Amino acid sequence: MTTLNGANGTSSSPALKVVIVGAGIGGLSAAIALRKEGHDVHIVEQSAFAHEAGAAIHLAPNANGVLRRLGIFAESFGANTMDKLVEYTFSGEQQRSLDLSESNKQWQHPWHLAHRIDLHNALKAAATNSIGNGSARLQTSSVVTGVDPASGTVTLKDGTHIQGDLIVGADGVHSITRKAVPGGNIRPFGAGKSAFRFLVPRKLAENDAVTQKFVQNDGELVIWYANDRRIVMYPTSNNTYLNFVCIHPDEETEEQSGENWDQAGDLNLLLKVYSNFDPAVLRLLSKAESGSIKIWKLLDMDIIPNLASERLALLGDAAHPFLPHQGQGAGVAIEDAAALAVVLPLGTRPDEVGERLKLYQDIRMERANRIQEHSRLAGRDRSEQVKIDMYGFTNFNFGHDEYDNA
Ligand code: FAD
């Protein structure tokens, strides 16, 4: 049994030396969970985190169940509980209105609508603050160029090597660690759709006689559907902002869509792509906060045959890039992170890591793939839609917290 010291040199417990590639939602969650076990965690992140990007993100009950256990309470950074769901046709006819306040009671944890930057900041603070006997080390502005699962070596662009008993590949949709698992030399592909994302200050919608009807209630998620495009709106940041995700066929915005999260989009193009929607909705769109419009291509990927190899485990988008139609990308990454910590308790010997990662793969593979498939179905055009519960309320027990019973 090894007796490595914790990151602060304060622990004498047997601990694994863990190197996490990527300090996104999944990587930071894994850092917190593995630190809580007492492992020695070093996170390597390419970004300097100088200009954070991102708009809102769903934290369904499955995500919140894990986050709460990690000490992260999304309501403390302005997340709204999703209480109501309203659907319209593109021309503004209301199709259904669901009060979720009763059905929410079936979940053990709330369904939150949060701002990604707030969530990211909370995770970063929790990962790098002292937990028990030491914090994780976060090394930013460091691009990882390769990993060796056999020796546990992570190589940086500047030629530095970092050695670990375990490498966690949490480097997102354009992962380079993915290539190091058998069958992982696959690339995400365009799903045929792009999305505009932006924020509208809620006050602007409230103060306009035409648009105020859309912001009568807190915690309301609204969708306007045409056959091949849709506009999704929900509140975030203590109801001070309305987050918009507008999804349409790729070819309509080919000149602007990119594969990066911070690709700037254009208001005129947005209004053109959705020009046949209800004029009141277009009026809402035109209130987009200056500079907040981003446009991104939705990416999908074939199922990867392995989530782990020797000392390397993949999690989150590196393992299974999610389409956004179920709001489960962050949630499944957070679940992955918790599962890793469950299979690698303090006292796990370095020579046991490979076997335990097989267990991790068994636990995560089927669930992640099923939720991913459900997200694909939920994103189909209206004319091709199969009869599913679009929000996973019945198909998946997002509220069931499997770790409660672990
Ligand atoms: P991510 O959260 O994407 O994190 C991956 C991390 O790995 C990033 O910090 C990245 O910089 C780092 N990384 C990548 N390659 C390397 C490398 N070679 N070396 C070192 N570090 C590397 N989802 C939404 O639903 N709404 C949003 O508004 C939204 N905004 C986003 C903004 C940004 C800047 C990013 C990175 C992601 C965003 N996402 C958003 C995606 C969402 O966070 C993920 O889909 C989901 O949370 C899964 O998390 P993940 O940790 O697997 O990946």
Automatic annotation (TrEMBL):
The keyword Membrane does not apply. One of its GO terms (molecular function) is FAD binding. Residues 17-373 form the FAD-binding domain. Keywords: FAD, Flavoprotein, Monooxygenase, Oxidoreductase. The keyword Repeat does not apply. Belongs to the paxM FAD-dependent monooxygenase family. This is FAD binding domain-containing protein. The lineage of its organism: Eukaryota, Fungi, Dikarya, Ascomycota, Pezizomycotina. The chain holds residues 1 to 406 of 701 of the full protein.
